[in-house]
Inverse folding.
């Protein structure tokens, strides 16, 4: 009798859970053709842009900012916890980390590439049509088109790559190739132009979806690896993307060595408060 009660309880629990999943599937917004409607503004709520792997809080790359520039703690978003680097590639990653203040492409306002554009601390918007899908990112004005039918190879490498997509039941699958070499986060994790990203967007409710990407790069990693995280729909009134024209913020890092002051300094001439030169000789 006791075993029968356990079996009945288990069966009922499974039926309730199956019903819950079915209700979730039925509750997601859909387009007239039946595909999940991903249109809207989305954003991650994690610290993956600092480091895809787990990290503790630590001093930032610019100590003068104090706690404002400190690195927040965060859990890994990687299946298995760590990135399977090849030995020499791990050395390059460590060099990237040591020079992150000036060498991170984000600091230079370069387009963030895939998948980093998805989990930066700024929102992005999905426009879904009857044919293709467009994704627009607030950071650096990055944009890409996901071609759902006209699948071709990337004509040229670019920061955001070339995206060919298709549906696998209710999951949007996007293969991204033709990427410029880029970083994955502020800790110097990176990939080369050999990288292939396979993204999966699965809508779980009207308000959140699961984002998963498999990263392959035989130049850098021992094997393909996977990151996964939820993304959340921005639902506040008048939610929108705003201009983030970051090139002007990057000028000091990128061009300080060719500034007027440094030019004259290299000639042994110091500029006074009026901007006039005074020789040190």
């Amino acid at each position: 009798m006791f075993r029968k009660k356990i079996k009945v309880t288990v069966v009922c629990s499974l039926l309730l859970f199956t019903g819950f999943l079915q209700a979730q599937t039925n509750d997601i917004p859909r387009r007239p053709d039946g595909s999940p409607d991903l249109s809207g503004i989305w954003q991650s709520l994690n610290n993956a842009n600092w480091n895809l792997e787990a990290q503790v809080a630590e001093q930032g790359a610019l100590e003068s900012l104090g706690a404002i520039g400190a690195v927040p703690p965060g859990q890994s978003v990687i299946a298995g916890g760590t990135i399977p680097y090849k030995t020499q590639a791990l050395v390059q990653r460590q060099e990237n980390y040591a020079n992150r203040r000036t060498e991170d492409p984000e600091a230079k306002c370069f387009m963030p590439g895939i998948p980093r554009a998805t989990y930066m601390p700024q929102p992005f918007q999905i426009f879904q049509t009857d044919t293709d899908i467009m994704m627009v990112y607030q950071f650096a004005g990055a944009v890409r088109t996901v071609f759902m039918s006209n699948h071709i190879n990337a004509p040229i490498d670019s920061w955001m790559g070339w995206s060919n997509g298709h549906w696998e039941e209710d999951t949007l699958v996007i293969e991204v190739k033709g990427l410029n070499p880029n970083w994955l986060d502020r800790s110097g994790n990176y990939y080369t132009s050999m990288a292939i990203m396979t993204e999966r967007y699965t809508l779980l409710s009207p308000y959140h979806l699961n984002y998963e990407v498999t990263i392959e790069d035989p130049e850098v990693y021992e094997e393909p690896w996977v990151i996964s995280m939820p993304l959340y729909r921005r639902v506040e009134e008048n939610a929108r993307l705003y201009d983030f024209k970051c090139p002007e913020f990057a000028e000091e890092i990128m061009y300080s060595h060719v500034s007027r002051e440094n030019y004259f300094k290299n000639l042994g001439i110091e500029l006074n408060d009026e901007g006039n030169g005074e020789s040190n000789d």
Q: What stands out?
A: Confidence is low (pLDDT under 50) at residues 8-23. The two ends are 102 Å apart (CA to CA).
